Amino acid sequence: xxxxxxxxxxxxxxxxxxxxxxxxxxxxxxxxxxxxxxxxxxxxxxxxxxxxxxxxxxxxxxxxxxxxxxxxxxxxxxxxxxxxxxxxxxxxxxxxxxxxxxxxxxxxxxxxxxxxxxxxxxxxxxxxxxxxxxxxxxxxxxxxxxxxxxxxxxxxxxxxxxxxxxxxxxxxxxxxxxxxxxxxxxxxxxxxxxxxxxxxxxxxxxxxxxxxxxxxxxxxxx
Length: 222
Description:
disordered C terminus, 19% strand, Immunoglobulin-like, single chain
């Protein structure tokens, strides 16, 4: 078939074959295998690792994803049958392509950059959430402190008023006690404002009552 392999690199190779008018199938089968040993392997389809099918309108194909520095055998047939030796070629791939190595490094650097960016965004979001939570807690504590202060300020006048009332009650109780001590007989005097229309007649008091009640022009009841 006059098969040739061109443009060999570390990962790709182009195979070219002449068109055959007698090929009755609608596709060409391209089979290849690494580390081929013709003494131990036969030209059977099952012995090939990879197989590609291309339309019969084409006469070339670029094989990709090859292993650098590896010996390959490649065969092309126009039917789904086992190839013969005149339909195969053996070639060696080169070292890894510098452009491919550069692309791999770029992809690795891009992956590292994307991972670092995602981690940085996560850390920033966590720190921002922590700061907002801390600010909200401090603000809530400040409001609670202000509420406690205002309650204490409202409570102080009421406490003072209660203290004054208690002191007044104590003073009145002390005065009542002093009055009872001055009157050991337990006689309490009530002052009634004189009403001229009621007290029209003079009240006759006993001699004992006259000693205790002064005559001031008012009406006293014992």
